[in-house]
Amino acid sequence: MSLLETLLQNWVHTPAAAALGWTLVHSLWEGAVVALALGAALLLLRSSRARYIAGCAAMLALLIGFFLTFRIVLAEQRIQGVDIAFVFAVGHRVHGGPPGEGPAGTRTAPAGLGEG
Questions:
Q1: Which residues have C-beta within 8 Å of that of residue 103, sequence separation ≥ 6?
Q2: CA 11 to CA 9: how far, in whole Å?
Q3: Which of 39, 74, 79, 106 could in theory staple to 19 by disulfide, Cβ–Cβ 3.0 to 4.6 A?
Q4: Domain residues of the chain, as ranges?
Protein backbone atom coordinates (compact mmCIF):
# COMPACT_ATOMS: atom_id res chain seq x y z
CA MET A 1 0.00 0.00 0.00
CA SER A 2 1.46 3.36 -0.97
CA LEU A 3 1.84 6.31 1.37
CA LEU A 4 -0.82 8.23 -0.54
CA GLU A 5 -3.32 5.38 -0.17
CA THR A 6 -2.59 5.13 3.55
CA LEU A 7 -3.02 8.87 4.06
CA LEU A 8 -6.23 8.88 2.05
CA GLN A 9 -7.67 5.95 3.98
CA ASN A 10 -6.85 7.65 7.28
CA TRP A 11 -8.32 10.97 6.10
CA VAL A 12 -11.60 9.42 4.94
CA HIS A 13 -12.42 8.53 8.55
CA THR A 14 -11.88 12.06 9.90
CA PRO A 15 -14.52 14.63 10.80
CA ALA A 16 -13.20 16.87 7.99
CA ALA A 17 -14.01 14.23 5.36
CA ALA A 18 -17.53 13.79 6.71
CA ALA A 19 -17.95 17.56 6.85
CA LEU A 20 -16.81 17.90 3.25
CA GLY A 21 -19.33 15.28 2.13
CA TRP A 22 -22.22 16.95 3.93
CA THR A 23 -21.10 20.35 2.67
CA LEU A 24 -21.31 19.08 -0.92
CA VAL A 25 -24.83 17.78 -0.24
CA HIS A 26 -25.90 21.10 1.29
CA SER A 27 -24.34 23.03 -1.60
CA LEU A 28 -26.98 21.51 -3.91
CA TRP A 29 -29.93 23.19 -2.22
CA GLU A 30 -27.90 26.33 -1.46
CA GLY A 31 -27.04 26.59 -5.16
CA ALA A 32 -30.70 26.19 -6.08
CA VAL A 33 -31.68 29.04 -3.74
CA VAL A 34 -28.95 31.29 -5.16
CA ALA A 35 -30.00 30.37 -8.72
CA LEU A 36 -33.63 31.26 -7.98
CA ALA A 37 -32.58 34.59 -6.48
CA LEU A 38 -30.33 35.31 -9.47
CA GLY A 39 -33.11 34.38 -11.88
CA ALA A 40 -35.48 36.79 -10.16
CA ALA A 41 -32.83 39.52 -10.21
CA LEU A 42 -32.12 38.97 -13.90
CA LEU A 43 -35.82 39.32 -14.70
CA LEU A 44 -35.90 42.69 -12.95
CA LEU A 45 -32.56 44.08 -14.09
CA ARG A 46 -32.18 45.53 -17.58
CA SER A 47 -28.69 47.00 -17.50
CA SER A 48 -25.97 44.63 -18.66
CA ARG A 49 -23.65 45.98 -15.99
CA ALA A 50 -26.21 45.34 -13.23
CA ARG A 51 -26.88 41.83 -14.58
CA TYR A 52 -23.14 41.12 -14.63
CA ILE A 53 -22.76 42.34 -11.05
CA ALA A 54 -25.72 40.18 -9.99
CA GLY A 55 -24.09 37.12 -11.59
CA CYS A 56 -20.78 37.83 -9.88
CA ALA A 57 -22.57 38.33 -6.56
CA ALA A 58 -24.33 34.99 -7.03
CA MET A 59 -21.03 33.20 -7.63
CA LEU A 60 -19.51 34.90 -4.60
CA ALA A 61 -22.55 33.89 -2.52
CA LEU A 62 -22.05 30.26 -3.59
CA LEU A 63 -18.40 30.35 -2.58
CA ILE A 64 -19.04 32.04 0.77
CA GLY A 65 -21.97 29.71 1.44
CA PHE A 66 -19.81 26.66 0.77
CA PHE A 67 -17.11 27.72 3.23
CA LEU A 68 -19.59 28.81 5.91
CA THR A 69 -21.45 25.52 5.59
CA PHE A 70 -18.18 23.58 5.81
CA ARG A 71 -17.23 25.47 8.96
CA ILE A 72 -20.60 24.83 10.61
CA VAL A 73 -20.72 21.15 9.64
CA LEU A 74 -17.10 20.62 10.70
CA ALA A 75 -17.89 22.07 14.12
CA GLU A 76 -20.82 19.64 14.42
CA GLN A 77 -18.61 16.73 13.33
CA ARG A 78 -15.99 17.65 15.91
CA ILE A 79 -18.62 17.61 18.62
CA GLN A 80 -19.75 14.15 17.50
CA GLY A 81 -16.31 12.68 16.77
CA VAL A 82 -12.61 13.07 17.33
CA ASP A 83 -10.88 16.39 16.78
CA ILE A 84 -9.17 16.44 13.36
CA ALA A 85 -5.88 17.73 14.81
CA PHE A 86 -5.71 14.65 17.02
CA VAL A 87 -6.35 12.31 14.08
CA PHE A 88 -3.58 13.86 11.99
CA ALA A 89 -1.21 13.91 14.97
CA VAL A 90 -1.54 10.17 15.59
CA GLY A 91 -1.86 9.17 11.94
CA HIS A 92 -2.82 5.52 11.62
CA ARG A 93 -3.94 5.23 15.26
CA VAL A 94 -7.50 6.28 14.44
CA HIS A 95 -8.91 3.38 16.48
CA GLY A 96 -7.05 4.28 19.67
CA GLY A 97 -5.02 1.86 21.70
CA PRO A 98 -1.28 1.74 22.25
CA PRO A 99 1.16 2.37 19.37
CA GLY A 100 1.57 -0.63 17.10
CA GLU A 101 -1.81 -2.04 18.01
CA GLY A 102 -4.71 -1.88 15.55
CA PRO A 103 -8.43 -2.44 16.01
CA ALA A 104 -9.47 -5.16 18.45
CA GLY A 105 -5.92 -5.72 19.65
CA THR A 106 -4.43 -6.74 16.28
CA ARG A 107 -0.78 -5.93 15.75
CA THR A 108 0.24 -3.52 13.00
CA ALA A 109 3.58 -3.00 11.30
CA PRO A 110 5.30 0.36 11.82
CA ALA A 111 4.43 2.93 9.17
CA GLY A 112 6.30 2.38 5.92
CA LEU A 113 7.33 -1.20 6.64
CA GLY A 114 5.82 -4.16 4.84
CA GLU A 115 5.48 -7.70 6.03
CA GLY A 116 8.65 -9.05 4.57
A1: 95, 97
A2: 5
A3: 74
A4: 30-93
